[in-house]
Amino acid sequence: MTEVDPSVAGDDDHWMLLERFSSSDLPLVVRSRINPVAAEFAEANRVVAVIFDLRPEHVRDDGLPTCLDDLHKLEDRIVEAIDECGLNAFHTASVTGDGRRVQYFAIDPALDLAATIGEISSPLGELSVYSELDFATYLEFVSPTPLDRQFNGDRSVISNLEKQGDDGAVARKIDFWFYGNRSALMPLVDQLKHSGFALDHWLDEPAGVVLTIDAPANMSSFGEITPLLVQTAGEFGVEYDGWETLVLTDIAPQPELASKPSLFGRLFGQRKQ
Q1: Domain end: 142, 158, 189, which one?
Q2: Could you report the per-residue pLDDT of 10-57, keeping only the tens digit for each?
Q3: Tell me, what CATH number does 74's domain have?
Q4: Cα radius of gyration rounded to whole Å, the chain
Q5: C-alpha torsion sign, points 73, 77, 78, 82
Q6: Run of H or E residues at 240
């Protein structure tokens, strides 16, 4: 069992990036803390949002900020102020987009968050606290879906490629792994063949199949591939277990494989970056 970080900041904890959209249909990047202790504390106590509304000159047309480094510093100041109070609290998520940076905190009811961060300010925008959150809506917003978890795994593999000098832009053979009953896997194979996938080989122990396709190994490509595979696997009641591919560099293909993430990685995400 992996230990969880009991601190407010969760710097040594596991975090996952989630893709969401605002009511204005603008992109949101949600950084969610995957920590069962923090989740249980949030449900038993209360969650408060610290909202930083950016001035228009610091916001791009798509609603994302132009001053992300400054926002990180501001966020750290807020976390430090809460930590210094000595009361139980967890930073559970951060959301960037729609002209805002929002931090969610699960806090002890005795903590007056508005007073705690009242002296913090920034010329980039205005800080406020919102405590009337609907917990069910919040929980749905920051909880990873199966697609979120798989995208997180995709990012892990692509990051591994980049560390080895492969930007993923060159199309190459990519293998995709599925597990389940052969009776369910066979129609899955037939359906995915219509989307350009080919049968590579069947697996015996445990029962599964490996499909393949030639495609770039980057998030632009997997932004289309992954939703299709997750949806199709769910439709036929089988498990989609990630992918692997050869590392390609400017010199020559290398024998190493950039492999699908481990089960632990898929369940708990990456450490905070």
Answers
A1: 142
A2: 999 999 999 999 999 999 999 999 999 999 999 999 999 999 999 999
A3: 3.30.70
A4: 21
A5: positive
A6: strand 239-248
